[in-house]
Amino acid sequence: xxxxxxxxxxxxxxxxxxxxxxxxxxxxxxxxxxxxxxxxxxxxxxxxxxxxxxxxxxxxxxxxxxxxxxxxxxxxxxxxxxxxxxxxxxxxxxxxxxxxxxxxxxxxxxxxxxxxxxxxxxxxxxxxxxxxxxxxxxxxxxxxxxxxxxxxxxxxxxxxxxxxxxxxxxxxxxxxxxxxxxxxxxxxxxxxxxxxxxxxxxxxxxxxxxxxxxxxxxxxxxxxxxxxxxxxxxxxxxxxxxxxxxxxxxxxxxxxxxxxxxxxxxxxxxxxxxxxxxxxxxxxxxxxxxxxxxxxxxxxxxxxxxxxxxxxxxxxxxxxxxxxxxxxxxxxxxxxxxxxxxxxxxxxxxxxxxxxxxxxxxxxxxxxxxxxxxxxxxxxxxxxxxxxxxxxxxxxxxxxxxxxxxxxxxxxxxxxxxxxxxxxxxxxxxxxxxxxxxxxxxxxxxxxxxxxxxxxxxxxxxxxxxxxxxxxxxxxxxxxxxxxxxxxxxxxxxxxxxxxx
Length: 501
Description:
The protein is α/β, with parallel strands linked by helices and 501 residues long.
């Protein structure tokens, strides 16, 4: 018999309906590029979803084989991924994305283009057997100093974010991949990264209604199949509990007021905003009780023990009267309903590829300042990347910048990465007599970066500046290119301008 921490015991049968429901609501991760035995066993016991991360993906062919392995055990399994395109990519974690992210799409502001990008991204996911994407981000980037959203947002204008969120949902789901619009009720006005601590948004209810909630209304109207909750405290909605654990936010607001009837997924439960305050077991019970239907875990905790702990916590809570059995059953039923939708949608959604749409979008997203008298480079430059610490959502595995693309166009290009107070002097020394291309990311958020760029420009006024974050700082340099994101295609589009291609 399985013994729980509370002292209660489970049924001898691992397959009773309560245990199966508890497994069904979990979306765990794992390590490796093949499904481990424990994961396949749990799929047989009732687990209905699996989350994939960059560590699970080596190539499209390997990913297709992995998802086929999962489906051989459970035909209707939901295979989820955090593939936003742009800076947050799992499909192309080691090369950089073929698609610009939301901020670039918002800069172009062509809803048809956003829909086409999302459709092609969805087509590639579906081709690899992925049927649930934890995207798009519907956050309004109202705080330019936000450490975790930034270029993951379509922009700071609510109406723009709303129309592009709807277009993205429509495009992705037309490829047979369920969209998971995030981070409800809106993570854009935060100064803290919820991977590290619990952020707080102190605005009144009318502002929330007009600003944060508008893109989610648009996503719901567009038919988004899932919504992801945010680990943020919004006192105007619930002064006591973060949104992921709040019945007022998930049930009263999202279900009741906004009329949403799809799957509610939590953000990663091992993020410190939850794990460091409530713990993952208690947090998962509270989340389901509040109205969440699926518990996302696996970005950090990716083993069978985590699945067992969360399953047992949910079963124990039901038996102790802390979690209504009907609520758990309802959550599990919503997971199964989405799985059925993906089975119907995927075969009907096959369409022609549009593999160049990402590069077309990246080119259109460029904002160029000072280009009138600029002569394209003909000699290989020195690329000085002023490199900030990447947030956890983006990760530090994915290459970024323009050096690789400039090397292709101008063979012999050299590069280096610099950070800190001495970055400007060090970059000048490394560059020697070469023309300097300075690459920055969110210059406005990093005083050391602004200082380093100032030093470069004072010594070398002909420096070309490429801003690959949110372009809030004044444009500087002989040529300033704002790419609105650091995806590989954004780097390529900028390199083409610099080299006159």
